[in-house]
Amino acid sequence: MNKAVLGLVVGGILGIFDGLTAWFTPAVRAQLLGIVIGSTVKGLIAGVLIGYFARKVQSLPLGIVFGLAVGLVLAFAVAAMPDPSGKHYYFEIMLPGGIVGMIVGYATQRFGSGPQTATR
Q1: Beta bridge partners of 2
Q2: CB within 8 A of 11, min separation 6: which ones?
């Protein structure tokens, strides 16, 4: 499977699970559906970016580090927005976001296929 498409699929699936981790924070359980949708979109965006990087750079360690960086940056952007009571949840959002980025970076480098050349 193409690395960008694999990143999109893996990022989307892991984004769902990333959003479901919000259940462990009782103060935000009422917004769980919105959090899962937002985390899925965040996972899709991260997956495409990481997959595109994996097409250009053929290095497993760099793919994992880039995935971690993308996951943390996107998670920070979300964590910087306070909940309705004004509280920020940096750790609770950035930890799973970084883990998702690392897994997507690993998966795209390890299991994704590079660009195919036409044969005659």
Answers
A1: 113
A2: 43, 44, 45, 46, 47, 48, 50, 51, 100, 104
Paired tokens of 109:
């480098």
Distance CA 81, CA 71 (A): 16
Q: What share of the chain is helix, strand, coil (3-state, %, to 5)?
A: 80, 0, 20
* Element holding 33 (H helix, E strand): helix 32-56
Pair 7, 108: CB distance under 8 Å: yes
Domain residue ranges of the chain, discontinuous segments joined by +? 3-111
- pLDDT tens digit string along 45-85? 999 999 999 999 999 999 999 999 999 999 999 999 988 78
Burial (CB < 10 A; 0-12, 13-18, 19+), residue 70, is: buried
**Prediction pTM value:** 0.89
